[in-house]
């Protein structure tokens, strides 16, 4: 199957989870015909609806990558074609142009409430990693790693915090003009739906479906509620900021199989376009690198993953800012 695109543009189960991700599948004979993707889909839809039922002032993060786009697809299924909360994208200004075109084209097509946040002060001061590296190209590898992490803490984690709590400028897409305008609504988002998967990266395997943060969005990894037998804690103290993870038990292979089954549009950056490389995980242009791969469509990627040729290559190995502990430290500080 050819990937649907917009114009212009060893897996581990989550700890302490029942093997069957659908809480009622084992008891309901009517569900016996469902395959594994069906069960994952139903579990995710269930999480969406539980979150919407229990929490106010929610939003959903959309990074424009494969996982959060599957998350968007599931949200539309959960609410019958409508997404009843804003989608938030943190724009570092260094995303590849195709990603931004894809974001806006899909937002207009689906009539989404699309909100974009950005650390405009850091960009104006030219205090990002690309700016600082341009001024000092002789940086050592260690200095570059430290600068990349610092840049992410500002343009991603800091901008995300400011956008969520309403202290930063929010820009909302005008569905009539296709332009972004300053959003007068500064109400804090206290429930945030995120497309994190437990198998993607070590720190994300420590998450829960309903994962609390403190009032500053900081994550205490050691203070997470148990989730046994599909029983989820949804009663949290006032002031708790919550992250909700409907894709937690999905794997990279599941994501691509679902994209193929549902014919979900994705950016062409995921596919080999003739040079024998493709991106496996998408981020900022200066801080990502492609992998060697000749997969030209979704079916090719599925076959590649099933072949085991990528088993010893981390999915985020091309994300240069992660480093040894970089992503977990960023996530403790509020990054998704």
- State the CATH superfamily name of one domain: HUPs
Strand content: 5-15%
Our Rg estimate from Cα atoms comes to 19 Å
| Form type | globular
Largest sheet: 8 strands, mixed
CATH class of one domain: Alpha Beta
The average pLDDT value, as a whole number, equals 85
**Helical fraction:** 25-40%
What is the CATH architecture descriptor of one domain?
3-Layer(aba) Sandwich
Oligomer: single chain
The neighbouring-strand order within the major sheet is 5-4-3-2-1-6-8-7
Characterization of the model:
The protein has 336 residues and is α/β, with parallel strands linked by helices. It has a domain at 29-251: Rossmann fold (3-Layer(aba) Sandwich). Helix content is 33%, strand content 10%. It is built from nine helices and ten strands. It has helices at 36-54, 66-78, 97-110, 120-124, 129-135, 141-165, 252-262, 298-307, 326-332, and strands at 58-61, 87-90, 114-117, 170-173, 180-182, 191-193, 210-213, 241-244, 277-278, 291-292. It has an eight-stranded mixed β-sheet with strand order 5-4-3-2-1-6-8-7. A two-stranded antiparallel sheet has the order 9-10. The longest helix has 25 residues, at 141-165. The protein is globular. Residues 1-21 have low confidence and may be disordered.
